[in-house]
Fold each of these.
Amino acid sequence: MNVQLYSRLLVVFLTNTVWTRNIRPMYDQPDTYDWSFYSFECPQECFCPPSFPNALYCDSKELKEIPAIPARIWYLYLQNNLIETVTGKSFVNATQLKWINLNNNKITSNGIEKGVFGNLKNLLYLFLENNELEEVPAPLPLSLEQLRLARNKIATIPAGVFNNMENLTALDLHQNKLLDSTLSSDTFQGLNSLMLLNIAQNSLTKMPPTPPANVIQLFLDNNSIEAIPENYFDATLKLIFLRLNNNKLTDKGLPSKIFNISSLLDLQLSYNELTKIPSINVHLEHLYLDNNRIDSINGTQICPVPIPGDHVYERNLPRLRYLRLDGNEIKPPIPFDLMLCFRLLHAVVI
Ligand SMILES: *[C@@H]1O[C@H](CO)[C@@H](O)[C@H](O)[C@H]1NC(C)=O
Ligand SMILES: *[C@@H]1O[C@H](CO)[C@@H](O)[C@H](O)[C@H]1NC(C)=O
Ligand SMILES: *[C@@H]1O[C@H](CO)[C@@H](O)[C@H](O)[C@H]1NC(C)=O
Ligand SMILES: *[C@@H]1O[C@H](CO)[C@@H](O)[C@H](O)[C@H]1NC(C)=O
Ligand SMILES: *[C@@H]1O[C@H](CO)[C@@H](O)[C@H](O)[C@H]1NC(C)=O
């Protein structure tokens, strides 16, 4: 298959993954279900759809506490309430839980009873976005596939809390209070399935410890990162999306071949302090460099291959299709050698 088509399909596939999974309960019912075994109790504050006996909807009800969750429940919706505490007594019978959505509540770290999540051995998704957590709850079940902790006040990650979550694919910690010192070299150790790591909008001044090898999306926007260490991306062989917008990157902070990452398709470096266009890999498709301090472009210098002649096959051309350079100090016109190099460019914003 043509490389270009393949990578487009991959992007479409990736952006759809989470969404597709979210609608799973519509179709996902136990195969062999012995209904007589379970009672159909339903907490009075909640809605128990008869056609969906594994789901419990207790969202947007101004609840201050979590009701007792019946044993049959797999999918638990508690978002948009006023819940402050999570205690074991709500979950004593709910050992089959797979998803818990507790987004948009008022849960504090002190309000979480020790071990309450760790006991849920079948839990796959835990959503605790937009609460008042100051640390990552621990312990957590090793079965987790998605852990979403964005928009809290997290400044502490207990040692080893994520280690060996072998099925975790998404870890979202954006908009918290993480410092360089919060992250240690083994924080992400053993996350062999991790594809999305979002640490945007924290207080990092350095790149985090090397992400696990299978990460596809690494988001670090809105920190204060000044530099990227030499060889930082050597082990991340699957990285496709890298976002470092709104940081403090300078030319000096970027080793010369740092973005020569052959898997990378989308590189975002808007709102930094760059004066030069960094060198890129021939496969890169989208490059965002707007709102830096770049004052000139030399198409010959930034071309990842020698300027292609007229008879080069399309498949051998640099793949760049979208380039943003607005908010810099570049004066039109766009240099001709830029167009000669990047023949597949659809748009240059200057
Ligand atoms: C747990 O299940 C048992 C047996 O069905 C029941 O008696 C008890 O009230 C339940 N506890 C909670 C907190 O739901
Ligand atoms: C990870 O997923 C596999 C396949 O579904 C499963 O067999 C394994 O037990 C899971 N690992 C953990 C720690 O739950
Ligand atoms: C970063 O901060 C800017 C300005 O405060 C804001 O507009 C943008 O949405 C933020 N982006 C992310 C990804 O946090
Ligand atoms: C980028 O890396 C490739 C190998 O992945 C290498 O062939 C190429 O010369 C490198 N380009 C630059 C500009 O270093
Ligand atoms: C661009 O760079 C090339 C190679 O370094 C050089 O030969 C050329 O003169 C430069 N072009 C301009 C317009 O400065």
Amino acid sequence: MFDFSWNMLTYFPPGISTYSEAHDDLFALVYWISVGIFMLVQITLVTFIFKYRHRPGHKSYHYHGNNVVEFTWTLAPTILFAGLGLYSDEMWKVMKYSSRIPTPDVEIDVVGQAFNWNARYPGADGILGKRHARYRTATNLFGIDPTDARGKDDIVLTGEFNLPINKNVVVHLSSVDVLHSYFLPNFRIKQDAVPGSWIDVWFNGTKTGKYELACAELCGSGHYAMRAVLNMQSDADFAKWMDAKNAAKKIILDAEAANPKPVEAAAAPAPAAHGAGEHH
Ligand SMILES: [Cu+2]
């Protein structure tokens, strides 16, 4: 049977971030105001269609506006929208103001790339190394600065996201190609990933489990497949996962240390001792 209800709020997936409940309350307020106004407008419309229908003996007449009515229907929505805007700013502050992002317990970088989500975790030292777009290559999507020792142990993963619950997680978000959108429905997060800029997103998940990470920006032919799973874990499980990643990374780093690659001297032009036009 077709199950109809005016209450479409049940379409939300379960909210599991610290602010998802307040977010849903705000959504519900706006939703029910919209339902109310929709009903009012449609009932008025149908009533008027019936009341002012063509009948013999009834003549139409023409007049130029009504100031009281026009003033009212301009002022009422203005008050409504300005009021909702001011009221919802509290929620916006909590979720979006970059100046109010709590001190991170865990910090990661995420970049969108048609059609994958990539993550960078701080390695064994717990610190993300410096990055800059000038270092970005096909094999160094995050532009990790090779001269920063703290970046050497950073761990780069594609489509694999594990994070601990009850921690303030800050995601530094960007894109390497086109606009993508970092969409975590269970956390009530949707944030554009913009090439050339880093945007901070924060959340604190309260429940373990696997949750969808999708791209919510039409970014090309593979857009539909640009999704991953965010695995929210207990502290202990997350530490175990991180340890395994760090151990695997250590094997690579040790191998590189034992057998260092020849330094590409040609990559950086040697500074000219006496450049043209220079006088000493
Ligand atoms: Cu995308």
Amino acid sequence: MNENNIEWTKLAETISFEKEPEQLHKVKRDDIFIVKDEDGYHAINNRCPHLGLALNVGGCNKKDKTVHCKFHSSDFSYDTGEVKAWLNIKGFEKFMIWLFSKFDADAKKMMTMEPKPVETFPTKIADDHVWIGIDQSN
Ligand code: FES
């Protein structure tokens, strides 16, 4: 990441995270999910890298620093973006997806995708606000 190509966007007052430690903010066309934990502020793209569904609705595990995608049970580090679990579907739901995949090529493709990390963004605190940096060179 080239520091000179980063555009910083002011998001929310730091004090607002005391009541609401997980927040969703729109930055241009992206929804950015901000998680505050004991180490500070972490920013990720709210789109799950699997099918693009919303990550914020699945909840966070602050101990593991992960966010859970509730749609197909994947977990990502909200700190590094790393995949911690990918399509960890079990039981009847797994059987139904397997069955569906037998007859639908698109469904099969969706459920055999290679793991992809979630996009992360640097954060900083200035003027009592949380800012995120977006690399403009991408
Ligand atoms: S959309 Fe997140 S795991 Fe499928």
